[in-house]
Amino acid sequence: MIASLSKEQTDLCLSRLREKLDSLCREVLYLNLGDVKTVRILCCHPDAAAMVRRQLAWSITSPVEEPDATLYFWEEAQPEDFHRRVLNLNFDREEGDDFLMLVSKEEGKLLPFAEFTQNGAVRIWKDNTYFFSAKEMTPQALLVDGHLFVQQLYRIADTPSTNLIHGACIGLEGSGILLCARGSRGKSTLTVTAMLRGFDYVADDYLLLEKENDTLTASPLYSIISLSPKMYNTLYDDLDKAHFVSISPWKDKYILDVSAYEASVQRHYPIRACVFPEIVPDAEPSVLACTAQEKGRAITHMIHSTVAQMNDQGNTRTVRKLVEILNGLDFYRIRLSPDIFLNAECLRQFIKHLNP
Amino acid sequence: MNYQLNDAKMFADVTDGIAIIINSLTGIYYGMNGLGTGMFDALLKGASDADVLAAFKALPGAPDDCEARLQAFIEKMKAFEIIVPAASESTAPVTLVLKDAQFDEFTPTCNEYNDVQELLFADPIHEVKEDEGWKPEK
């Protein structure tokens, strides 16, 4: 269901919300998104700051005088009647429809500004202020819609030369590789294995891409990784510095806090190529250059997996920007063998070959 | 007639049975339903429109106007500049998924996602009045 409000009603909703949350604020944290944008997070729940630290340790920074954005973070145990109880909006939600969007009617245009998701979360945004609630302040509940704040950080970090994307990045000696793949294609396993084998590490799932002049770089945002239970067990002894955060809401992945691996982490890491992993039964892993058609498919996949997760398919400006950024890269396929450490060595040889 | 991807400006991928196409020049994003994806994929793999039509007609429960539905779909893809006539003729086997066709009511579709306003207007908007709010009709 979509409900439209006048601009005055919208402004009134936001001031009611601010009033409620300002009184609940326990701690303020600041994030630095790849030196591109800064965010002030008002933690309006006793456990909120700990939850942010658990996922975004590598982005937390010292206080900033004029942050680019502000994000309120709180627990809303009864989101069903939140619009009535907190925003004072007098209407009933349609029976059976557990999604509600509020749009603001301004100068004849409808501007979405609030979503009440099927998972019981409240997401509100206006200009540079974001409001983010969870039904429960628990690690698992905070992963229901993906990594914490990922859609909000995507919007905040969107500049003409930067974009948050869905993908992984590792490298060696200043030569970074973007890794993108569909689910269960070995991306996370390859990334984590490479990190444990001494590669430079940027990100496992989401990263910030920045293109300046002709140089493309990647920076991390999150300090968590996701591994299938099988791979978690395989790598258990090697991951001695990782902390278990949660099982994913779909129970198919374990989420681990790897913030203790800070020494491996690289920021503004130059990207040399993009590699698509695919699992094959071959005994030996190998890397092959993509054909033009395969490259087109790969770029489409990368953009789709980013914009679809961010609910941003209609944003032609972002899509054009991502096409331009990615089209300048060489694309390869890595055929992964069942031996995960051999795969990491294959990638090491490939990167050395790229960077003689 | 054979068609190919207009690769001067279009990138395409099939993810989880759904075709996604991106116009690299405009940033406009296109999506297809399952039946449309099957037909588009077959065309890109060298099947002619006649091959696709034969497979469409062979589906149990296929409507009488299969040809018109396929042609409307092809014309839409041409209008979006997703496909262009191929330089050479070819033929290839076509497998369309009956479950997709039934789910899509035997109508292949291709949609453009280029305007948030259009996406919003696709749903009914309920205006919230200052005094009485909005109540769903019983």
In words, what does this structure look like?
The complex is a heterodimer of chains A (356) and B (138). Chain A folds into 2 domains: 2-156, no CATH class; 162-354, 3-Layer(aba) Sandwich (Rossmann fold), CATH 3.40.50. In chain A, 27% of the residues lie in helices and 34% in strands. Chain A has 9 helices and 21 strands. Chain A has a 9-stranded mixed beta sheet, sandwiched between helices. In chain A, strands 10, 11, 12, 13, 14, 15, 19, 20 and 21 form a 9-stranded mixed beta sheet that branches. In chain A, strand 11 (168-172) and strand 12 form a beta hairpin. Chain B is of the alpha+beta class. In chain B, the strands form 2 sheets. Chain B has a 4-stranded antiparallel beta sheet with strand order 2-3-4-6. Chain B has a two-stranded antiparallel ribbon with strand order 1-5. The chains are: A alpha+beta (356), B alpha+beta (138). Strand 1 of chain A pairs parallel with strand 7 (125-127) of chain B, so a sheet runs across the interface.
- Give the N-terminus to C-terminus distance of chain A in angstroms: 57 Å
**Residue share in helix of chain B:** 25-40%
Provide the CATH topology of the largest domain in chain A.
Rossmann fold
CATH secondary-structure class of the largest domain in chain A: Alpha Beta
* SS elements, strand count of chain A: 21
CATH architecture of the largest domain in chain A: 3-Layer(aba) Sandwich
End-to-end separation of chain B: 52 Å
Give the biggest beta sheet of chain B: 4 strands, antiparallel
Helix content of chain A: 25-40%
Strand content of chain B: 15-25%
Helix/strand structural class of chain A: alpha+beta
> How many H/I helical runs of chain A?
9
How many beta-strand elements of chain B?
7
Count the domains of chain B: 1
Can you summarize the main beta sheet of chain A? 9 strands, mixed
Order of strands, main sheet of chain B, comes to 2-3-4-6
The total of helices of chain B stands at 5
Strand and helix map with partners:
The complex is a heterodimer of chains A (356) and B (138).
Chain A: E1 2-6, H1 7-22, E2 27-33, E3 37-43, H2 48-56, E4 60-61, E5 69-75, H3 82-85, E6 100-106, E7 109-116, E8 122-126, E9 129-134, H4 150-156, E10 162-166, E11 168-172, E12 175-179, H5 187-196, E13 200-203, E14 206-212, E15 215-220, E16 224-227, H6 229-234, E17 243-247, E18 254-257, E19 269-279, E20 286-289, H7 292-309, H8 316-327, E21 330-336, H9 340-354
Parallel strand pairs in A: 1-6, 3-5, 5-9, 12-19, 19-21
Antiparallel strand pairs in A: 2-3, 2-4, 6-7, 7-8, 8-9, 10-14, 11-12, 11-13, 14-15, 15-19, 16-18, 17-18, 20-21
Chain B: E1 3-5, E2 10-15, E3 18-23, E4 29-32, H1 34-44, H2 49-57, H3 66-79, E5 83-85, H4 98-103, E6 110-113, H5 116-121, E7 125-127
Antiparallel strand pairs in B: 1-5, 2-3, 3-4, 4-6
